[in-house]
Specification:
The chain is 38% helix and 19% strand. It is of the alpha+beta class. The chain folds into 2 domains: 11-279, Nucleotidyltransferase, domain 5 (2-Layer Sandwich); 295-479 and 510-571, 2-Layer Sandwich (Nucleotidyltransferase, domain 5).
């Protein structure tokens, strides 16, 4: 826990509801110094996720964990901060909340999650539908098909393809597979909207503030067509979906707006005075981008179990609709700017999968297996293994937007070692990252710098160097190791009146580390060859050219391997 002696000023609290835990962070608004943090791990399921052994696409969460996580993490961080000179609970100016998403929750008329009722406690459909739940892939394809034939181009602002990770596809799948839950739900509320509503006592689904971040990127909300998709379109999907839209408050709000004030009941439980301002909620990646100092021309990569790649652009820019993105939404990242979202469905999850299921015992029985594999993998030269992988182990979020795609490893032989595969998987995620950069620039959104954040960026120089070499551009690291929570704290500070604008708060509270990973010319040249082969596979999937692409890739991989030489094998 970092210790800091505060200057005169206020403090803000950022609460980050991640995939496996909740983190609360106290930040000094004077300079962004992170005073203390507290983490609460979700107790339900496997690392906080409710799974179904018969359906690998299912991933739900217990809403009770969200409530307890907020109370325990904020109470813990307030108690820890009380030991620091200059802090007092009365000096907390605001609270900001970020969460995973799209993670919609079926709620009753009072806005309480159905899963908290005894009748639904064991029904997975009544719990929160986590962002990584892909059970609604068929519904997503149906929404895509019908939206493409609708006169209002609802998909234009979300990349042209609707995803199984998103709001409407999950709700429609619930209607078809768990009608009892659907019928009992008065409305569906995103986790990012539920937490601020719960702690401010405004849970009525008809009035609780809905954030533009979740609404615009996941629910096809846009002012161009008056908010959510028309009742006529929703009825074409299912007549009852129109009822869901009727209980959705509008207009959707930016995260710098005040969602309400902390209730006396909640305030007592977390050691704060009642009435503290609470900002409108948003997704973790979007607030993380703000915590990393995002501005026009800056691509922020939030690298964790998956990645989200965020950019912003001025509202007076004439932006085209960019195929394959997860949305172009006014105000979803920084109020007054377009927020652009892309990402990869699995990055850290890929590395963890390999360690958990395939890595030999010599790497897993003593010490950190990732450290052990990295030690041998970084001895290899680019191209030396003759391997090439695709990073689609949990589907493809951008550009192809297909949750049913799977990973691929080419070039493996009986001599292939675990570190070689591990390195190939890291390289695959870097190739996916470069594909996203190229898509932005192809449509006129110039990437002038890349700022990385998240646990992998913070702790793994090996991965960051490969990203620099593959993308052939410097990789910067956010000054904060907790950018999502920091971004939430920034919005809490703005909602609480400590700053007039998000930009003003960023200037005081964000920065980057001195260390910059720069591309190495020789490695970048080899990776340029390998990336050409990656692109060939990427573009050939789903076409008649796949076999020809595979043959071509195998031939070139052998040539690259023979040229780079197998100088130092790891046996």
């Amino acid at each position: 826990m970092r210790q800091h002696t505060s200057k005169r000023g206020g403090f803000a609290i950022g609460v980050d509801h991640g995939t496996n835990s909740v983190r609360a962070l106290v930040v000094d608004t004077a300079d962004g110094a992170e005073v203390a943090s507290c983490v609460y791990d979700y107790p339900s399921g496997e690392a906080g996720i409710l799974l179904d052994p018969n359906d690998p696409h299912l991933a739900r969460q217990n809403p009770a964990d969200y409530i307890e996580g907020f109370l325990r993490s904020v109470d813990g961080v307030v108690k820890a901060t009380k030991r620091h000179k200059g802090f007092g609970p009365e000096r907390v100016v605001g609270i900001g909340v970020d969460t995973t998403g799209s993670t919609p929750i079926p709620v009753d008329r009072r806005g309480m999650p159905l899963a908290l009722k005894p009748a639904f406690r064991k029904n997975l459909a009544a719990h929160a539908w986590l962002w990584k739940d892909h059970t609604s892939h068929a519904e997503a394809a149906e929404i895509t098909d019908k939206a493409r034939r609708n006169r209002d181009d609802y998909l234009a602002k979300c990349g042209g393809v609707y995803s199984s990770e998103w709001y409407w596809s999950k709700i429609l799948h619930c209607k078809r597979t768990s009608p009892k839950v659907f019928d009992a739900a008065y409305s569906w509320v995103e986790l990012a909207d539920f937490v601020p509503a719960y702690i401010t006592g405004n849970l009525d689904p008809n009035t609780l503030p809905r954030g533009i971040c979740a609404a615009g990127h996941k629910a096809m909300y846009h002012e161009q067509w008056g908010g959510l998709p028309s009742r006529r379109f929703l009825r074409r999907l299912d007549p009852d979906l129109a009822n869901v839209a009727e209980h959705y408050a509008k207009p959707a709000l930016t995260a710098d707006q005040k969602a309400g004030a902390l209730t006396a009941e909640i305030a007592k439980k977390i050691g704060l005075p009642p009435g503290v301002a609470v900002g409108v909620g948003a997704f973790d990646a979007h607030m993380g981008a703000v915590g990393a100092g995002i501005k026009p021309g800056t691509l922020v990569k939030i690298i964790g179990t998956s990645t989200c790649d965020m950019m912003v652009a001025p509202m007076d820019d004439s932006l085209p609709d960019i195929p394959g993105l997860c949305g172009i939404v006014p105000g979803s990242v920084i109020p007054g700017m377009y927020g652009l979202e892309a990402g990869q469905s699995a990055v850290g999850d890929i590395f963890n999968w390999f360690v958990k299921y395939l890595a030999p015992a010599r790497y897993t029985t003593k010490g950190d297996p990732h450290v052990n594999l990295t030690r041998d993998a970084e001895r290899l030269q680019p191209g030396q293994s003759g391997l090439l992988a695709l990073d689609w182990n949990n589907g493809n979020r951008t550009i192809l937007v297909d949750p049913l795609l799977s990973g691929l490893l080419i070039g493996q032989t009986l001599h292939t070692t675990a570190p070689e595969i591990y390195r190939a998987l890291v390289e695959a995620t870097a190739f996916g990252a470069l594909t996203i950069i190229n898509r932005f620039e192809q449509y006129g959104v110039k990437v002038k710098e890349v700022v990385n954040c998240g646990g992998i960026a913070e702790k793994n120089p090996f991965v960051m160097q490969i990203y620099a070499d593959v993308c052939n551009r410097p990789m910067k690291i956010s000054r904060s190791a907790q950018t999502c929570a920091l971004g939430a704290a920034i919005f809490g500070a703005v909602a609480g009146g400590a700053f007039r604008t998000t930009k003003q708060a960023q200037t005081k509270m964000t920065g980057v580390k001195p260390k910059v990973y720069r591309p190495r010319k020789a490695a970048a040249n080899v990776y340029a060859e390998l990336y050409r082969l990656y692109q060939m596979l990427h573009n050939a999937f789903g076409t008649a050219d796949l076999q020809g692409a595979l043959d071509h890739v195998m031939k070139d991989l052998i040539a690259i391997r023979n040229r780079t030489g197998r100088v130092s094998r790891c046996n």
